[in-house]
Amino acid sequence: MRNMRPLWESLKTASHVRRPPTLANFHGSGSRRISCSRMRSAAPAERSDFISIIDNDPDLVKTGQKHGPGLIILALIPLTSFALGTWQIFRLDEKTEMIARFEDRLIRPPLPLPPRIDPSSIVDFDYRRVYATGHFRHDQEMLIGPRIHDGKNGYLVITPFEREDGSSTVLVNRGWIPKSLQRHRHRKEGLPSEQVTVHGLLREPWKKNMFTPDNRPDIGEFYFPDVHQMASLTGSDAVWVEETMVSIEPDLLKAYDREAKGIPIGRPAQVNLRNNHAQYIFT
After folding, report:
1. Which of 14, 49, 236, 276 is the least buried, fewest Cβ under 10 Å from its Cβ?
2. Contacts of 199 (CB under 8 A, 6+ apart)
């Protein structure tokens, strides 16, 4: 028991050892008191200048307000695209039918050109293969240009063709010649004086577009084939024949030889109408 007392006294003394201060020790008065507001920041709702979104005045949205031009344009875009696409479908069908009709006429045997032709009936014989015999009136020749052929500048040679029986005179588009050989003295081989037989396509008169300038017949400048104007100048019928090459497939060697001699290079007996409406439908 004697040995137990010193141990008990030591434990008792240890129980009175000062413990570390806690937050509760600072709640007293005086300089040792620390406010809780310094220990933590105040919540937004506890601030005196806080304004809730519920206390704000609402923004009124007007109904029935007129839309601006931008929204109207956006609404018109799909409508316009639909209308143009529908129109291109009809144009594709029309163009396909037209090309098929012309190709059917090309495979038929050529017809002799009638002595007298009603210009208003040519539409029913457009792209019809015909032939006629007579003489070229080179003194009344007209050049349409400039026209590009294989990257070279030149002209289309339009010459009145007087029929052998003297029944009528028609206009013949003989083909293309280079610009350097536009003078008669430079292409004598391309000016036959004897009687010849012309093979070609009966065509409708061309239509002038808005970008092509007007012809100047007073100074001998022609930019597009105005069939009625040219017929009036030469005393011919308003009948347009496009001379074709003998072979359907172009012969390069023969074309080079004709170009060097100034003999007009005629067109192939083919339908040369473009049909891009299928691409326009998707674009």
Report:
1. 49
2. 110, 129, 130, 131, 243, 244, 246
What does the alpha-carbon distance between residue 158 and residue 266 come to, in Å, rounded to a whole number?
A: 11
Digit-coded pLDDT (tens) for 70-94? 777 887 888 887 787 777 777 777 8
Average pLDDT estimate for 46-64? 68
Model confidence band, residue 136 (pLDDT cutoffs 50, 70, 90): very high
Coil, strand, or helix at residue 233? helix
pLDDT surpasses 90 at 142: yes
pLDDT digits (tens, 9 = 90+) for 148-167: 988 999 999 999 999 988 78
Nearest Cα residue to 106 out of 132, 121, 126: 126
Q: What are the C-alpha distances in Å from 214 to residues 49, 78, 86, 218? A: 82, 39, 35, 12
- Rounded to whole angstroms, how far apart are CA atoms 117 and 168? 9
For residues 280 and 263, the model is more confident at: 263
- What's the rounded Cα separation, in Å, for the pair 272 and 127? 10
State the DSSP H helix or E strand holding residue 9, giving kind and residue range, or none if neither.
Answer: helix 4-15
Three-class SS state of 80 = helix
Percent above pLDDT 70 for the chain: 71
Using DSSP's 3-state secondary structure scheme, residue 111 falls into strand
Q: Rounded to 5 degrees, what angle do the CA atoms 266, 269, 272 make?
A: 95
The Cα–Cα gap between 85 and 74 comes to 17
What is the C-alpha to C-alpha distance for residues 157 and 142, in angstroms, rounded to an integer?
Answer: 6
